Amino acid sequence: AQSVSQHNHHVILSEAASLELGCNYSYGGTVNLFWYVQYPGQHLQLLLKYFSGDPLVKGIKGFEAEFIKSKFSFNLRKPSVQWSDTAEYFCAVNLFNDYKLSFGAGTTVTVRA
Amino acid sequence: DAMVIQNPRYQVTQFGKPVTLSCSQTLNHNVMYWYQQKSSQAPKLLFHYYDKDFNNEADTPDNFQSRRPNTSFCFLDIRSPGLGDAAMYLCATSTPRTAAYEQYFGPGTRLTVT
Prior knowledge:
The structure holds two protein chains of two kinds. By secondary structure, chain A is mostly beta strands. Chain A has one domain (4-112): Immunoglobulin-like. Chain A has strands spanning 4-6, 10-14, 19-21, 23-25, 31-38, 45-50, 56-58, 64-68, 73-78, 87-95, 102-103, 107-112. The mean pLDDT of chain A is 93. Chain B has one domain (4-113): Immunoglobulin-like (Sandwich). The radius of gyration of chain B is 13 Å and the shape is globular. By secondary structure, chain B is mainly β. The A-B interface holds A 32, 34, 36, 42-46, 49, 51-52, 88, 90, 94, 97-101, 103-106, 108 and B 31, 40-43, 45, 48, 50, 90, 92, 94, 96, 99-108.
């Protein structure tokens, strides 16, 4: 069955630390990849997406992600986190031309001031 | 600003009492989705509309229904809410005009069942 796996359930960091969240998917075809963020009490927002071209994509708020096709991975990174990055992060995948998303279970990131 | 709007933001209903949640969008997107999200879990797709075509997920309970009277509005009807239906309900939209069908989410309606 097709699935999206996020490696960490809960990550706790101090401000200025680097962040990397893992995401792997099991789809065999061409995929579009997304990272969404949900800040406390707010709606899901798109951080970044990959659909073609440069596998290193940059998103909002200093986040970036790298698509590694051979590893079926799309890991999210931020070199230096801030307290305001405390949120739930979801990796999501859809097949090319498919408008249904499959979400990972999410990773809660807590940044300590 | 173009957006996805959900009303109400908080809804309390009694066990077994029908409830309707609403979603509207100013994005003019073809596709509208309803998700159920429970605490610390991923959103779970209940169903979606592609224009007027309704698509139900296989594991969505019959208790959940939806209506889309026009492009802008979509409703989620829960005919007989149970305690297990307490959750955040998210509406989202997408369009083939974007490269990847990324979805735009509303703020959600938090449903409490007493």
